[in-house]
Amino acid sequence: MKAESVEEQISTTDRLARNKIIAYSILALLVLSSAFMVVYQVYLYRHDFREFNTHMRDREDINAEWGRLLIEQQTFGATAQIGTRAVTQLRMYSPPTAQTAVISLPTTPAK
C-alpha cells in the first residue's frame, strides 16, 4: 500500500511539474508574441508616419502652386482691365498703319 501511495505521489508530482512547464511555456509564447506584435505595430506606425509626411509635403507644394496660379490669374485679369479702361476712359486706340512710322537706328560697324 505504501508503494502505491508513493507511486501516486510521484505521478502527481510529475503531472504538476509537467502542467507547470506547459503553463510557463504557453505564457512565454504569449509574451514573445506580444513583444513581436509591439515591434510590428511600431514599424507600421513609422511607415504610416513617413507616408503622412510625404502627403503633407505634397499638400504644401500644391498649395504653393495654387497661390502662384492665383497671382498669375490676377495678373492676366489686370491686363484686360487696363486695356478696357484705356479705351473707355482715356479714349486710347491703336493707330492705323497709315499713321504709324517705323524708325530704325543706323547700325555702327564693329570695331
Automatic annotation (TrEMBL):
InterPro entries: Cell_div_FtsL
Keyword tRNA processing: no
Subunit structure: Part of a complex composed of FtsB, FtsL and FtsQ.
Name this protein carries in UniProt: Cell division protein FtsL
Pfam families: FtsL (PF04999)
Keyword Mitochondrion: no
Function: Essential cell division protein. May link together the upstream cell division proteins, which are predominantly cytoplasmic, with the downstream cell division proteins, which are predominantly periplasmic.
Keyword annotations: Cell cycle, Cell division, Cell inner membrane, Cell membrane, Membrane, Transmembrane, Transmembrane helix
Localisation per UniProt entry: Cell inner membrane; Cell membrane
